[in-house]
Design a protein that fits this description.
Layout (H helix, E strand, L loop, with lengths): L2 H27 L3 H26 L3 H26 L5
């Protein structure tokens, strides 16, 4: 791995951690439930991006599979939370 790529990966990971921290604050202090759900969506998307950057860094395919599973479960969770906020129940 070249020096520039290693530096870019480190900078990307630092910025993603900063973004996750800000989203964590929004998740904890959000004024409404919709803001909290949006922050949770953002957290799992950034978590998926972190896993993809780690896959590039360590040259491993397992991170790609983990990122795919993370997005799948995050999407299902977002749909369930949105349905709960709209109707008051998640399971019919």
């Amino acid at each position: 791995m070249s020096g520039f790529l290693a530096l870019a990966i480190e900078a990307t990971l630092v910025l993603y951690v900063l973004a996750m921290g800000i989203a964590g604050l929004r998740l904890a202090r959000g004024p409404s439930a919709q803001d909290r759900v949006l922050a949770l969506d953002f957290l799992y998307v950034v978590g998926m991006l972190v896993m993809l950057v780690l896959a590039i860094r360590y040259d491993s395919e397992m991170y790609f599979e983990g990122a795919l599973l993370m997005v799948l479960f995050g999407f299902v969770g977002s749909v369930a939370l949105a349905k709960f906020l709209l109707r008051g129940e998640a399971i019919e």
